[in-house]
Amino acid sequence: MNLRTSFPDGMRVTSSEQSGVGKAIVQDKTYFLQMKEHPWLSVASFLLILLFWEVVSRMEWVPPLFLPAPSEILSEGWTMLKTGLIIKHILASLSRILWGFFIACILGIVVGILIGFFSIPEAVGNPIIAATFPIPKIAILPLLILWFGIGEASKVAVIALGVFFPMVINVYTGVKNVDPLLIKAALSLGSNRTRIIRKIILPSILPMIFAGMKLGIGIALLLVVAAEMVAADAGIGFMILTAADLMQTKKLMVGLIILSLLGIFFNWLFQKLERVFIPWKE
Amino acid sequence: MKVLIDHISKVYIDRQGEVTEALRDIHFDIGENEFVVVVGPSGCGKSTLLNIIAGLLSSTSGQIIFEGARTDSRPLTAVVFQDFALFPWRTVLKNIVYGLEERGLQKAEQLEIAKKYITMVGLQGFENKYPHQLSGGMKQRVSIARALANDPLLLLMDEPFSALDAQTRTLMQYELSRIWEETQKSFLYITHHIQEAVFLGDRVVVLSKRPGQILDIVQIGLPRPRGEHLIIDKKYLEYVDVIWGYIKNQVRESLEETP
Question: Is residue A282 domain-resident?
Fold first, then answer.
């Protein structure tokens, strides 16, 4: 695109060949900062990449075993959907994610408020969190399997642990940043300490809770796949791993697409929920 | 009912052990239905004093006494803050009934009281708006209604109009004067704006620069109701001039001693 010709008329720079007195017209210096939107470009480029991929694969420039064509992945996915195989795996993973996520949200919110608002829990809790937070949660999985067995509990636990940290840290930060003026206002209107938590702290930190949930769901997807690859007989992670073992690249790709779709779905869901629960947000 | 501000002093000691004396021996009272204004140069501890009276800060010595106070669920004080301090997640109506909820009033009663004050401050039609949808002047009306709805013995206002533009501020002064006449409550109003102090007050307490001490208490003998006509009134201008005389010297001195 030619930037110069896309200047509005009044913005064109005129310059005089010889030095001396002339006319100077003010130019908008922020011009290049004004971001344009290209909605068609997003769609077109995405389709173009898919098309390119399809061609590469069809022409066997890359062996289909390494890179099956998008159309073939899609038809594989359709067959798996019809046989119900895929549903089984999705449900297995989803139930682990939801349980782990739910437990982590509740614990994260409660603990976050406690250590954010009360000095004794803060003194006790902060060093524990600081010490355990840096450990990669996958590294804790073997320990959790020892504790909870190889079944569902250890998988749910590792997801819960992974989601708990972003949640508790977000909530804690949220509580610390509640506008002290609002607390003063509530106190002067007759609120006591517990009412302050329910009526001022909780609504104040809702945006931070949602931010924690958005961070957490990404971690949950990561951990569910990791846990299922270690030990499981169902789930998307299990499906991907077995497909790879059997060189079923199409099936493997279907698994990846499902993970992408799940991520997009959860993001969309949280955005909708945020609208509903935070109607005062501008 | 009488509120006695009884020899209040406030000294801050920060973490480095540095001592700052904010208020020194502040002593005056506020009568029933009286509009008292505290005026002083910036940094003189006016807001500190208001927070102490509101029970949001402890004094170093002295106490706040409400003589002849009633003993029911209604609070002694309610505060209108400079930055409104509205709850952003509550609509206008929900903000106004906040204190009534905390006192455990019935829903119907809450609504009835809220309606009265919504009308008084001119917020009809805005009941279901969120604070971010309102202008500064409207926000401060909500804050005033919220404080009054809780029926305090003493309404405390901490530079309530200084976040507003000059025109809105002037109109809000007229309105506040009318609201005070309607409610017949005791008001304590804090400002650095001398004209505002004289326009609103029955008495003006003039504070010195830090540490804040009372320089004078000026009885404002201007008739009520007060309105636009007042600002060209000769007596009004004389009061303004007297108080400006005190404040001017204070500001000049603190200008010269600032490192």
Answer: no
